[in-house]
Amino acid sequence: MRLNPVRTVEYGSSKDIKDVQLVLSQSSVQSLSCSTQGLVPVVDSQNNPLQPCKSSMAERLIRKGKATPFFKKGFFAIRINKIVDNPIVSIIAVAIDPGSKRTGITVTTDSEVILNIQCNTPNWIKKKIEVRKMYRRTRRNRNTPYRECRFNRSIGNISPSTKARWQAHLRIIDILNKILPVSNIIIEDIQAPTKKNCKKWNNNFSPLEVGKQYFENEILSRGFEFTKYHGFETKLHRDSRGFKKTSKKLIDKWEAHCVDSHSLAEMLITEMIPVKDMYLLNFLQFNRRELHQGYRKGGIRRLYGSTRSEGLNRGTLIKHSKYGLTQIGGSSQRGISLHSIDNGERLCQNAKIEDCRVLTNQSWRTAFCCNL
Question: Could you list the residue range(s) of the whole structural domain that residue 135 is in?
Fold first, then answer.
């Protein structure tokens, strides 16, 4: 059974938008008149991205009925209720400070900050690949028919764990490009030179170089301008501006990672007043079907894992008749699980699909952090 999505938050229906502020964490919900972010993304009635505006202007347009507020995968924006011919847009740059566990992203115009993002990185891929490898080897050691082993794997390509990290950055850029006319991508260059006769060094750092090259090729294929700066250049600029960077990399503060992404943006464009409020993105971890695991007694495979529940993608934002805005989790014979959009806590395990109204599909959980 598949539930057809009805008028979603993504399309800006005024009926669906009234409770949408619950998507943000309780501590971060503020009125539009507050400076919750630097600028507000704007699109026209045909979803073409326009020049972002100030939050006061966005509030005025919404109050007069000239614009409709909506969320695009957790990012707040407004939609002008008309088609804008020949819009004038300036440079929109996305600066990225990649990290092994957290990544800082700053989006700016040629003079102001639009928004900041701090997201986690999918670091569970390596473990899942090892589990899959174990299941495959166990199956081949059992007394069951199986195909003969053959070397059909590509060698020397980008590793799955490295590819997942850079694809996470690309997904964020693709979403931002739908509500902002992005033109430039800036990144802090990761230096991992190859050393002669140093096998251990080269094996440890070659995925960084391969992943960096993969990301650059993908950015250029999308038509963006790509700029790289060295880490020491970022530090020099940060020190010259008097920005303090904390050593606690896992805290939800602007000084952890977005301070570097803001410095990268200033190095390309100009000095700007920093906006320390930021979106917090947590990529959801899905358990896929482990088709190589063993069978129960009687030859029946146990029910485990999937990315869909009753025809809906897990992680989908829905509106339930009892629990309100929630996300879809796993499923069982009793129904589907619903999880809180604030902390992922499970609310129930027996929700009926008929009581759910689909709002939008998403693979991450979004909150807004106000750093006063």
Answer: 90-142+155-276
